[in-house]
Fold this sequence. Notes:
With about 250 residues, this protein is α+β, with helices and mostly antiparallel strands. It folds into 2 domains: about 15-85, Orthogonal Bundle (Arc Repressor Mutant, subunit A), CATH 1.10.10; about 95-235, Chorismate lyase (3-Layer(aba) Sandwich). It contains 8 helices and 9 strands. The protein has helices at about 15-25, 40-45, 50-60, 80-85, 95-100, 120-125, 170-175, 195-205, and strands at about 65-70, 75, 105-115, 130-140, 145-155, 185, 190-195, 210-220, 225-235. Strand 8 and strand 9 form a beta hairpin. Helix 1 (about 15-25) crosses helix 3.
Amino acid sequence: MAGMRVALDRRSVAIQVRDDLREKMRSGEFAAGAKLPSEPASARIYGVSRATVREAYRLLEQERLVEVRPGSGRYVLPGATLVVQGSINLVESTTKILTDLGYDLKVRLIGTTERQATDAERSVFDLADDTRILDVERAYTSNGELLTHAINSIDPSRTPLPIEEMDLTSSLADAYAAVGRRIDAGFSDIAAATVPPRLAEMFHVPTTAAWLRFDGPLFDQHGQPLWWSRELWRGDVRTLRVVNRRSNEFI
């Protein structure tokens, strides 16, 4: 690691350094008990100032992934790898999650529907009362089997391109990233669910099968809303690790 420079993108530089270090914990490069590079060493690796590295380390300390041992340095805490593995995919695009899991993925556009925004959507997107939004309904399949069903609700006036020019079978996350807006945070209500009869008939899915429902908005690196996502994930495809803490300092 010592001789490598890491390329950074447009996000807050300290957050980028933090995220790269989290990924190294997730992959096992920095296992529990490992000592992190010193601030000067990390500053050289990432091509940033020591102050930026110090801020990145402070974020990891707030997440309780590392601890400071006075006179010795910063060390990865026991359980840090499990914490990071439990949260690493929560803000990835559906396409990336499924392809990373090794599926030969096909995305099918089921249709688009314009409708009145809900109160929650108007609040998150700061919309006027009469604003209409667009539901983009898609199915993610592999070898003909339904893995995920998604309805992404977007404000047509804020899309990267006019809707008629967008390839709605491609990743929405990639389309927004192409204009500098990357998924940075998401908030979801998660509940057990079954597939609605319409989808069950369309994809020959048992109506009694166990699925997970994710329902909530996604935000970019500037805190601006991207879209509201309502997804159904097959129970054996998506799993979650919930991290419980006594303190509310975890961010």
